[in-house]
Design goal:
Blueprint lengths: L3 E3 L2 E3 L8 E9 L2 E8 L5 E6 L11
Antiparallel strand pairs: 1-2, 3-4, 4-5
Bound molecules: zinc ion (ZN).
The site of zinc ion (ZN) has 8 residues, from loops.
Length: about 60
């Protein structure tokens, strides 16, 4: 289940709360996928953080 994103914050898609803890994260093509658990309803959901590109990418 994906989080509801409002104002760059990830809200629980089950109870709509902005209160969670991160259990896992992994790098994916789009950025970083965060796996979190809601502190209110204890259900897992995930969202993607789009990381800024900090190193210049060189196209050959
Ligand atoms: Zn919840």
């Amino acid at each position: 289940m994906n989080a509801i994103i409002k104002d760059n914050k990830a809200y629980c898609p089950f109870c709509n709360e902005y209160d969670y803890r991160v259990t896992d994260c992994k790098q994916i093509e789009l950025g970083t996928q965060m796996q979190v658990i809601c502190r209110k309803c204890n259900r897992e959901f995930e969202y993607i953080v789009k990381l800024r590109i900090e190193n210049a990418v060189r196209f050959v």
